[in-house]
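During the first year of the project, the team set up a workflow for recording each protein of interest as an amino acid sequence followed immediately by a discrete structure-token representation. This format lets reviewers and collaborators read both layers of information side by side without switching files. As required by the reporting guidelines, we include two representative entries from the current panel. The first entry is reproduced here exactly as it appears in our internal archive.
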Amino acid sequence: MKRPALPAREFIAPSDLTFGLSTCKRCLWIKYWYKVIMPGQFPLVKPLSQAQEEHFRRRSMPEIDPSLRPGVVKQWGQWVKSTYIEVDGIKTRWRINGIYDLLAHNDDGTVGLIDCKVSDSDRDNGAFYSPQLEAYAFALENPLTGKAFTVASMGLLVWRLNGVAQNVDGQFGFGVTQHYLPVERDRVQFENVMRDLISVLEGEFPESGLECSTCTYLTQRLALES
């Protein structure tokens, strides 16, 4: 497939540093050069995520987890855009653009970044999501415009569904268990992942991922139609 003169997208989504890069490099390449994305089927993800985020607005950080610095969640669901990313000292055409979930302002002037998850996946661990959170941290510390923040902590706030409950009015609801998972800052890993991602985007049309359901479907369909 021939690459256009300019990519259709100029900003990198933080989630592509985890799900995109680990799933299928071909789909990722097409997304950025042609802005063609396979529609997802996640009808409950958005309302569940919104309920979780709304629950923790204006909460104190130690209330979320005792290990966190004193502070209060004061911002949520805001877009952040970064300056241009450098790889090996060379300025690239790419920048970060994404929406973080919760941002706490700590008493010492730093901020704490929290990513909310409603999931039962074993992938909900710090190592898997570290590049994504580092991308948000990079944009907060190197903003395209506005004030720069110092990100002192990052973490996942995970809800796992835990059965159904009924109240006295006969209404039903889902119960959850909650745990906070700290994610250590790892700028070296972030730089390595960014180098890999940009190398894919700036390269030629890549092979599809071995376990990419989208590519498998398209291959099988084309075989039937031929």
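The second entry, processed by the same pipeline in the following quarter, appears below.
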Amino acid sequence: MTAKHGNKFIFFVFIFAALIIFDGFITPASASDVPAAEELLASMTLRQKVGQLFVIRPDQLDMKLTFDEIQDPKAQGVKELTEGMKETLKRYPAGGFVLFGKNIAYPGQLKCFTKELAAACFITPLMAVDEEGGRVARIANSGGFDVPRFESMQALGAGGSTGRVKEAASAIGAYIREYGFNMDLAPVCDVNTNPENIVIGNRAFGSDPSLVSAMAGAYLDGLHEQGVAGSMKHFPGHGDTASDTHTGRVTTDKTWDELLHAELVPFIGNLDKADSVMAAHITLSKVTKDGLPASLSEELITGRLRNELGYGGVVITDALSMGAVREEHTSAEAAVLAFKAGCDILLMPWNYAGAFNGVLRAVYDGSISRARLDESVMRILKLKTGIAARAR
């Protein structure tokens, strides 16, 4: 980096640090912000750009933990940011974090931890949590938190009231923001059409595509009301499956036309208000020829979601540590495949350093162009500025 660029870099670090201190977020999106974002991008090092692609578990910063301990929900989780973790973050900068139940102890601890993580990052990170409401609610189900609790999204959806769903999502958005989160990995946009489904079930709003679409849109509206981003999951629809991608390969034999009339309806109906779309690890045997999970398939992410359906926003993978990916690909392979497929955010790889270095090598050897890298980083920066704009 030249002295000129170094000075510019320091200037933007100062500006963003000031914004973080006074607002907790990056400055809101406006016409005047675009050149600043572009100049910031131009001033970032390659490692900082690559880091923006990754949203990880905070446990992955603790080099004393084994990979199995990091992923084990019953193992002790990190609950504060140590000096060693800060050093790891300097070497492997990350664009955001996802906290789980094992990272959550009590209200004061959680507020302190999210604040420490945000302060340690060059650019305000995505602070995410799976707080769908119902059985997947990391904060509400931790105990010791005086927050609203909901039976399930299925129960809310059964009444057919988008108002109730928006109100519930707004309540969820309000309390997760209070605890330092700016992104909820929700709503579940899956259409629950398979009674043997062991993954989705009552996490979905129902079995009618139109109802699910309306409820998912209301959920996003509720989050946005609180300045919180959502993530529509699990594209292209996990509702008509009988196996779990957490443990291994899952395949659906539905055609694209069949998906368009059922599973895809909630996604298509809400792409205009989507902050991000989460790609599932299900394999579509009658849609793609590459045999890859949706999250790693260029045919599906770029060919279908981006080109055919016209979605130009952030695409985030489901956790790359899940069995459907890990049993067939190394962390480096999975990260590179997902990025080449058209994904922007690479969520929770099994081996963070391995995935980071894999993408870095791909940029160095030219298999990932710097222009393609910049494209995704800009999408992520725009997502962050969009969150800040709603939060005001």
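For the second entry, the following points were noted during internal review. Residues 45-391 form a domain with the TIM Barrel fold (CATH 3.20.20.300). The chain has one domain: 45-391. Both points are flagged for discussion at the upcoming steering committee meeting.
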